[in-house]
Amino acid sequence: MEPAASCSRAERPGSPSPELHIASLVVHAAPRRLDEVRRAILALPGADIHGASDTGKLVVTLEAPSTDDMMAQISTIQRLDGVLASALVYQHADTLDAMNEEIDDGNGP
What we know:
Blueprint: E1 19-29, H1 34-42, E2 47-52, E3 57-64, H2 67-78, E4 83-95, H3 96-99
Antiparallel strand pairs: 1-3, 1-4, 2-3
């Protein structure tokens, strides 16, 4: 008997397509801790900051391969020293195949 061929989950017949999870948050940090909170968020994989105010509010987006990974990132942000609050603004999840499909907007090439 030959050993079974090794293949990743994404290559196995019938296995679900890999996913992409996207979320946006407003994070409120103590103004005096804003720089360290910003550095900690940017150190997270898939995290980006799109805006900040002097009062400590940050607009953050996150990308993750699964719901569990997304929730772990959000929890990490909420537990950072200097974070006063966070609010989930948007969340979307889809397969990578669906995310990469061309969208026909009716205007044509």
